[in-house]
Amino acid sequence: MAHIPDGVLSLPVLAAGTLAGAGGLWLGVRQLGDRDIPRTALLAAVFFIASSLAFPLGPTSIHLLLGGLIGLMLGWKAFPAILVGLLLQALLFGFGGLTVLGVDLANMALPGVLLAMAVRPLISAAHPLRSAILTGLAAALAVLITAGLVGMEIALSEPAFAPAVGVMAAAYLPLSIMEALVTAFVTLYLLKVKPEMIGASAMIGANP
Amino acid sequence: MAVDAVDATARSSPLDRLDTRTRVVVAVVLVLALVSLRSWALLGVAILLGLVLTKLAGVSAGQTIRRLLHVEGFLLILFVALPLLTRLPPFIEVGPLSLSLPGLERAITLVLRISAASLVVLALISGLTPIRLGHALGRLGMPVRLVQVFLFAIRYIELLRAEARRLHDAMRLRGFVPGTNVHTMRSYGHFIGQLLVRAVERAERVNEAMRCRGFAGRFPLVTLERFGVVDLGAAGLVCLVVGLALLMDRL
Question: Is A57 on the interface with B (CB under 8 A)?
Answer without folding.
Answer: yes
